[in-house]
Amino acid sequence: MAQDSKILEELYTVIASRKGTDPDKSYTAKLFARGRGKIAQKFGEEAVETVVAALSEGKDELVGESADTLYHLLVLWADCGVEPAKVWAELARRTGTSGIDEKKSRAKK
User: Fold this and answer.
1) 46, 48, 79, 91: least CB-packed within 10 angstroms?
2) By the 8 A CB rule, do 31 and 39 touch?
3) For domain 7-96, which architecture applies?
């Protein structure tokens, strides 16, 4: 795998390829087999662990937890059929817009 910004796309491709494969041979396949609720739960758990690492642990722990969080986010995207390019396009659309202005522009629910 690449050591640059393409790593997320490459990892996403590997993750997506695990969908429907033997859950006894792949942690990713096991997550897919357990369903979206479990995938979302794991993402949430990793996000919390990342916050804890940022607040009370060292940089190495934060890096590790961040990698876990990104991995589980990619699994969630793959399960939902969201490709990274869609997220990158949304980020690009928001580039150059203040966060305050961008938030105001969203439709109220």
Assistant:
1) 91
2) yes
3) Orthogonal Bundle (1.10)
